[in-house]
């Protein structure tokens, strides 16, 4: 009941004219930028992060939440009309949604994506409202040893999930940790990794790194490979669903939500796994299996609901234990830190009114997205006709202005370009950049907690495995490191045994 009252207080704050205006601006800008091809939610949020710098914390976070949800919706529009998913979780929407668009059913595909996003986002936000305080109360019991183990879980699981190669994911993580350690050591006062460059004594602003790794890397990559042309599927009618489409869609929305929120809430969650599970489930349960691969509406409804439910679920570990489980969550964590707010177990106790206002604004933003995007679907479709060179020229301008606003010196622009080129090299080496952001943010926190733990034990490392929670978390770390190595070996051995058995089998008479 206390949580319900706190949520009502959050609505009282979120429903003021000022906050409603910032929520509307956030969802509008987020959708408009998220619709542009090749720009996923993470890049959308990173690009627009500096826009919120001059606002009060509550207004900024409400606008930020609107940008987040708007970017998620805009990505589905791009996938359906242009067959260009902005992130891996939107691949299924592109697979079936673009087939529907090519068959003249773009309006139905956009409508089921929008309504599914609304249903899943609302149910996911309800789960966030009532699950987060419970998780936060449990996480308050964490001490420095538990935090060290938790950071280790975050490092290995996020590195493994955001890249097909565990070694490359860990390499990206180390790059981020190294950047995060640049500056003056708080405890000793000694400069670290500054190489005698005075402006680096204050460290590198997280916003500059995030904008460089996402926005500049994307722009440099397109400039090098050539922008090419686009073929947008036309949208001639309003985004509405027929009764038959609605009957086929609503069970898929609920099933996708049931998969997306709990998996997205896990520390090793994310949106990719529930999205693919939802597609597989819909394919098995649908009475129209023959349409899959040719534009089945369930193949858009279920995965889009799973994607948006997971987006709400991702906020649970982010708000309660300060753990980003996706690239977008890592950028959102940057937004909190830019206002001196550190998500974690103490967040609900120290900044309760702000957090509940933010959660209430997610409900409001969901309604705004539905009301805004169904009538304006044709407007967003026209945005897709902007030439790619114009889009990425604008991205470069916004990225440069954002970096300058964050730091205010020309050195920051040099650092921005240098890290952008580093991101380009990482892309060509197929090293994911998202773990670098996680390492950049969580690396200094892990170092601080490790030093505190060793100080408490007077240098005895046994404190790191001194309780059941720490032991469990270290077992999770070991499994996350061993499973990607052991599974391929086991598969090869199984295949070799199968070949031997086939070769030794007597020939048929």
TrEMBL record:
The keyword Transmembrane helix applies. The keyword Nuclease does not apply. InterPro entries: DUF112_TM. Coiled coil: none annotated. Signal peptide: none annotated. Keywords: Membrane, Transmembrane, Transmembrane helix. The chain crosses the membrane at residues 20-49, 61-82, 106-135, 147-163, 169-186, 193-216, 309-333, 354-374, 386-406, 413-442, 462-487. It holds the Pfam family TctA. This is Tripartite tricarboxylate transporter permease. It comes from Pseudonocardia eucalypti.
